[in-house]
Write a structure and sequence with these properties.
single chain; 133 residues; 2 domains; 4 helices; elongated
């Protein structure tokens, strides 16, 4: 039995293909061509409006699932790079789970480090550094 995550992954792969885009474009072209046949009636318009609304509604959830999965994978990869780098601050692991106040404190600290590095660079000094031991 395929779960939501597996279904979302399969659908996102299918929807990302050029052939799927071509299929969607073909549906719209057919709809436009049939306009004169149906006298551009309200029902004719309702068909495309309803179809696109339903697809858009479902795609929002699909895109969010895909984005969440990709973001989580990237965060784990970054956490591993921090963990494996000698001298790196392990306190930076899993930053995305911190509250706004703590995250802002980290951001201010790194802004200060960047500012100091730019000052040193402006004085002709090296702007590279390594974390404190």
């Amino acid at each position: 039995m395929i779960g939501y995550s597996g279904l979302a992954k399969a659908v996102s792969r299918f929807c990302g293909r050029p052939s799927t885009f071509a299929l969607a474009l073909a549906v719209i072209v057919v709809w436009i061509i049939t306009g004169p046949l149906f006298g551009f009636s309200d029902t004719w318009q309702l068909v495309i409006n309803t179809g696109t609304t339903i697809i858009t509604f479902l795609m929002v959830f699909l895109i969010q699932n895909t984005q969440n999965r990709d973001t989580q994978a990237i965060q784990l990869k970054l956490d591993e790079l921090i963990r494996a780098t000698q001298g790196a601050h392990n306190a930076l692991l899993d930053l995305e789970e911190l509250d706004e106040r703590t995250l802002e404190a980290f951001r201010r600290r790194y802004e200060a480090l960047a500012s100091e590095a730019r000052l040193r660079q402006g004085q002709g000094l090296a702007d590279t550094d390594s974390p404190e031991p």
